[in-house]
Amino acid sequence: MTKPAKRTQKDKIGIYIKRQAWILFILIIIAWLVDTIWLHSELTIAKSAAIGALLSFITQAVFAFFIFWYTGYRARQHIVSQLYRGQMSKWLLTVFGFALIFITVQPLSAPALFIGFMVMQISHSWMLWHIR
Question: Signal sequence span per UniProt (predicted)?
């Protein structure tokens, strides 16, 4: 009987990103169902929530990409600088993403946009808590 291979941190993050993609998909389906069945807003609410959730997903994936660019003990200085670059990239993408969304997407529901974004942020925090 062979021993299963130990998962690296990169493997765990890859699994995490796949789970986040499923949460994104489920959130979009739920928003669509709520909008279609209950709110009847011509999918404005569903579209806005989906865009907010997608923005959160993309920024988290970019952050993870920066963080795990380097691995290993010898790369610790690079990892710290990548942490800074990843966080800055995440914030810039978030700010410019929201600006671009508010400028280009019409009609838009700002509360639904922020709720979609926050649900993904909460699920991100919850999953990171479970990874550790």
Answer: none
Cβ contact 101:117 at 8 Å: no
Six-digit token string for 12: 């765990």
String of DSSP letters for 30-56: HHHHHIIIII-STTHHHHHHHHHHHHH
Q: Report the sign of the C-alpha dihedral through residues 81, 85, 90, 92, in that order.
A: positive
Q: What is the largest CA-CA distance in the chain?
A: 59
> 16: which 2 tokens?
């995490």
CA angle 116, 67, 3 (to 5 degrees): 100
pTM: 0.80
d(CA 126, CA 97): 23
For residue 96, what are the contacts with CB-CB under 8 A and spacing of at least 6? none
For residue 59, name the pLDDT band (cuts at 50, 70, 90): very high
- Tell the burial category of 93 from Cβ atoms under 10 Å away from its Cβ (0-12, 13-18, 19+): middle
